[in-house]
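Summary of Year 1 activities. Much of the first year was spent building the evaluation harness for sequence design. The harness presents a backbone, in tokenized form, and records the residue chosen at every position. We chose the following record to illustrate the format because it has been used consistently in internal testing since the harness was completed.
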């Protein structure tokens, strides 16, 4: 048995032990410690941490979960790693992202449902009152939840777009996948008043409150959801630091939540917004290209928060590196269709 120490971004030290034949994620959960995780199969990257010292055996994983640069820097996925010595790990998330009890599974009801541009849906849930958890929506801005389909043992992970609140409201922006199980349910059968089971909150994609740097948010499609959550949290806290949002879609008709962005600009006067269209038509007068390309043209030394398809993450990391932004100041969350 080996000793494992996990140092969080905000300086908390978490300790547990691991047997050689169990993954580090299983070992942590055996000790009632629940780090950020989702797929548990090396496909999402939610449980990525760094190795400061010691040796770990890493099983195969998806390239979408961890980049080659992250692997070369010594990062591992807790769900795919086995201790081969005592380990000292560093986490790119705060202690608040770690649970110390199993992830709650709570019932929620659909209160709003409608299109979000031509390729996504906006889904708003409200938690049912719960004897253990009450009705509040408590999470860290930027986290996600897994939604369980009614009558199905199937879950899908989606980022939360609203800020934490006492009203129990959870807002999701969900890209529609042709033939997708959850997408088909949303478009063909879901209705106001239907119930879902919400597993969460989960995830490590949260603001680094210890940093005083400007914050730039790079969002591709429904990757806008966690950026909205973080910006809404900043607005509630009266955070006056400079911030920018680079929001891109494939085609103009895919834009959504522009009213929410305008509302944020009223609350955060320092917020600059750049809208990008990758495959623009002749009528588009804004920036043609991707949010990563827009980021490359805007020099500064901010913290960068990027969410979207793996290709956008890679391009944003490259643009940030070219601009001299340290890799540890680029925070990302990849998503891919289930």
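For this record, the design step produced the sequence shown next.
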């Amino acid at each position: 048995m080996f000793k494992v120490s996990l140092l969080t971004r905000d300086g908390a030290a978490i300790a547990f032990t691991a047997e050689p034949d169990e993954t580090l994620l299983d070992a942590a959960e055996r000790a009632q410690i629940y780090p950020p995780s989702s797929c548990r199969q090396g496909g999402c990257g939610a449980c990525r941490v760094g190795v400061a010292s010691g040796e770990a055996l890493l099983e195969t994983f998806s390239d979408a979960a961890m980049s080659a640069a992250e692997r070369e820097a010594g990062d591992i996925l807790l769900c795919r790693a086995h201790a081969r010595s005592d380990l000292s790990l560093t986490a790119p998330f705060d202690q608040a992202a770690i649970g110390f009890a199993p992830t709650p599974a709570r019932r929620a009801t659909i209160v709003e449902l409608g299109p979000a541009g031509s390729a996504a849906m906006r889904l708003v849930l409200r938690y049912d009152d719960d004897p253990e958890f009450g009705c509040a929506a408590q999470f860290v801005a930027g986290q996600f939840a897994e939604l369980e389909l009614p009558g199905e043992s199937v879950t899908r992970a989606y980022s939360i777009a609203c800020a934490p609140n006492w009203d129990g409201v959870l807002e999701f922006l969900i890209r529609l996948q042709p033939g997708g199980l959850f997408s088909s349910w949303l478009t063909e059968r879901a209705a106001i008043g239907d119930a879902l089971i919400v597993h969460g909150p989960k995830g490590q994609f949260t603001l680094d409150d210890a940093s005083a740097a400007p914050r730039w948010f790079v969002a591709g499609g429904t990757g806008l959801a966690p950026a909205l959550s973080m910006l809404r949290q900043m607005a509630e806290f009266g955070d006056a630091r400079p911030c920018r949002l680079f929001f891109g879609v494939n085609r103009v008709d895919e834009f959504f939540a522009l009213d929410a962005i305008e509302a944020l600009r009223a609350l955060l006067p320092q917020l600059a917004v750049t809208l990008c269209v990758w495959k623009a038509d002749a009528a588009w007068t804004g920036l043609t290209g991707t949010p990563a390309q827009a980021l490359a043209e805007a020099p500064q030394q901010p913290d960068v928060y990027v969410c979207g398809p793996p290709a956008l993450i890679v391009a944003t990391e490259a643009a940030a590196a070219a601009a001299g932004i340290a890799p540890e100041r680029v925070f990302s969350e990849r998503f891919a269709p289930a």
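The chain has a mean pLDDT of 92. Quantitative recovery figures across the full test set are reported in Table 2.
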